[in-house]
Automatic annotation (TrEMBL):
<dbReference type="GO" id="GO:0043200">
    <property type="term" value="P:response to amino acid"/>
</dbReference>
<dbReference type="InterPro" id="IPR011008">
    <property type="entry name" value="Dimeric_a/b-barrel"/>
</dbReference>
<dbReference type="InterPro" id="IPR019887">
    <property type="entry name" value="Tscrpt_reg_AsnC/Lrp_C"/>
</dbReference>
<protein>
    <recommendedName>
        <fullName>Transcription regulator AsnC/Lrp ligand binding domain-containing protein</fullName>
    </recommendedName>
</protein>
<dbReference type="Pfam" id="PF01037">
    <property type="entry name" value="AsnC_trans_reg"/>
</dbReference>
<dbReference type="GO" id="GO:0043565">
    <property type="term" value="F:sequence-specific DNA binding"/>
</dbReference>
<feature type="domain" description="Transcription regulator AsnC/Lrp ligand binding">
    <location>
        <begin position="37"/>
        <end position="104"/>
    </location>
</feature>
<dbReference type="GO" id="GO:0005829">
    <property type="term" value="C:cytosol"/>
</dbReference>
<dbReference type="InterPro" id="IPR019888">
    <property type="entry name" value="Tscrpt_reg_AsnC-like"/>
</dbReference>
Length: 110
C-alpha cells in the first residue's frame, strides 16, 4: 500500500456517510446551462458553485448541459429553496434542469 501511495496510484482515502443520517435524504442531479461560455462566466460560475455546501459534486460536461451537479438536501421543499435562492442565482446560469433520484444502485456490496 505504501508503494502505491508513494507512486501516486492511491491519491487518498474517503469516508462514506449515509446522507439521510445528516439530513440529506434527497439527491438531485441538476443539469446547468450557462448564458455564455466565456472564460469569465465559467470562472464565476465555478467559483460560486463550489461554495454551495449542498453541491456534493460538480462535473463540467459536454452535451445538453455545461455542468452536471449532484445536490443533496433534506427534502423537496429544501431543494426548491436551494434551486430558487442559490443555484438559479449563480453567475451566468441560464437554465437548470433537475432530476430527482428515486433509488441509487451500487455494485459495491457494502
Amino acid at each position: 500500500m505504501r508503494q502505491l501511495e508513494e507512486a501516486g496510484v492511491i491519491r487518498g482515502y474517503r469516508e462514506l456517510i449515509d446522507p439521510a443520517t445528516v439530513g440529506r435524504s434527497l439527491r438531485v442531479f441538476a443539469g446547468v446551462r450557462l448564458m455564455r461560455h466565456t472564460r469569465a462566466n465559467v470562472v464565476a460560475f465555478e467559483r460560486g458553485v463550489t461554495q454551495l455546501p449542498e453541491v456534493v459534486a460538480c462535473h463540467h460536461i459536454t452535451g445538453n448541459f455545461a455542468y452536471l451537479l449532484q445536490v443533496e438536501v433534506a427534502d423537496l421543499p429544501a431543494y426548491e429553496d436551494f434551486h430558487a435562492n442559490q443555484l438559479a442565482s449563480l453567475p451566468g446560469v441560464a437554465t437548470v434542469t433537475s432530476y430527482v433520484t428515486m433509488k441509487t444502485l451500487s455494485a459495491d456490496p457494502t
